[in-house]
């Protein structure tokens, strides 16, 4: 198993255990082979000219038993793959659709605390890694990630869309109308990686434009989104890599993480608002060998992200 395979493993802290089990499994397999071979030598008669055919048959039987049992002692070579296929959601399709949105500092010279445009933060690694993990952990058919604007006519082909750095959102009037229709028709929006009261206030104002008569509400801890695929005890705070390197899990005053939503008339969450947490960094940096201590946040980000995706696709 390579170093990269261990880093890309399902980040539950099990890389070392997988390697140890692999070594132990090979040892047990060799011991079994020796014992079976010895058993064969004791039980098989000496081969004479007329005994060669029975001898070959018995030897073949021993080898069949050996090669049947050896895989039992071998863990999966690629620890990214689940121990057993989970086919609960076979037949579902999903694609990571990143939304290229208009933002507060667009067309200005105001200083930003990030490079480039906010809608593209963590790309393309975040969507590539999450797509790979959804594909290996579930039976969902996963398509390649794409980027769309809200006014793209293909938008309504996809049930799930993603906004990163959502505290910078500043939609045009036409975008507001389209997003409202998309959500009321059964789509789900995933908002991620914005922090603190200032960014929350801007985001809440934008959502009030989309749904003037609907309130943003907290998703309670007993909601089925926390058990739709993995069982998660509570909503996690995934540290951005910068916060992690600074020795904390929060940024911009956003100490307490929240999962919030706006409900449609049937009570369905039309969006998952991931505030004071950074799922995108958890996905983006899951393959980085330079930050082994960050693995615990990667595990949280993958599990919560997959739960929100599965819930969106099944409701």
Structure overview:
It is a single chain. The protein contains nine helices and seven strands. The N terminus is likely disordered. It is of the alpha/beta class and 315 residues long. Strand 3, helix 5 and strand 4 form a beta-alpha-beta unit. The chain has two domains: 71 residues, no CATH class; 222 residues, Domain of unknown function DUF4159 (Rossmann fold, 3-Layer(aba) Sandwich), CATH 3.40.50.12140. The strands form two sheets. A five-stranded mixed beta sheet has the order 3-4-7-6-5.
- Strand percentage lies at 5-15%
- CA-based shape: globular
CATH topology of the largest domain: Rossmann fold
- Given the helix and strand composition, which structural class is it? alpha/beta
Name the helicity range.
Answer: 25-40%
Named CATH architecture of the largest domain: 3-Layer(aba) Sandwich
Uncertain residue ranges:
1-52, 62-81
Main beta-sheet strand count, sense and barrel state:
5 strands, mixed
- In the sheet with the most strands, the strands line up as 3-4-7-6-5
Mean pLDDT across the residues is 80
Radius of gyration: 26 Å
